[in-house]
Amino acid sequence: MRKTRTRHSPEFKAKVALEAVREQESLVELSRRYKVHTNAIAKWKWQLVKKVTLVFESAESSGSGEGSAERQAELLQKIGELTVERDFLAKGLGRSR
Fold first, then answer.
1. Which of 25, 48, 65, 87 pairs with 15 at a CA distance of 20 to 30 A?
2. Is residue 41 a contact partner of residue 17, using CB atoms and an 8 Å limit?
3. pLDDT in tens, the chain (97 residues)
């Protein structure tokens, strides 16, 4: 009988990786406690250490990114709609711009 592969949640991986970074217990001890292979824990720890700088980079550059580009496109669309609406109403009142 073959055992199916276990998929761990990101929260679980983060929890185990943080404990590995603390180095209060060895990878072998963590492996026994969480029933995860030591190579997996070492990989999660490496990923955490490597990508931790991204947290601070995104905080510094909060003005640029996907969210702000979408927001900017949304605002430009709204400006266009309001301009068309204003011009339409101005023509209806007999005013020209």
1. 65
2. yes
3. 677 888 999 999 999 999 999 999 999 999 999 999 999 999 999 999 998 888 777 655 655 556 778 889 999 999 999 999 898 888 888 765 5
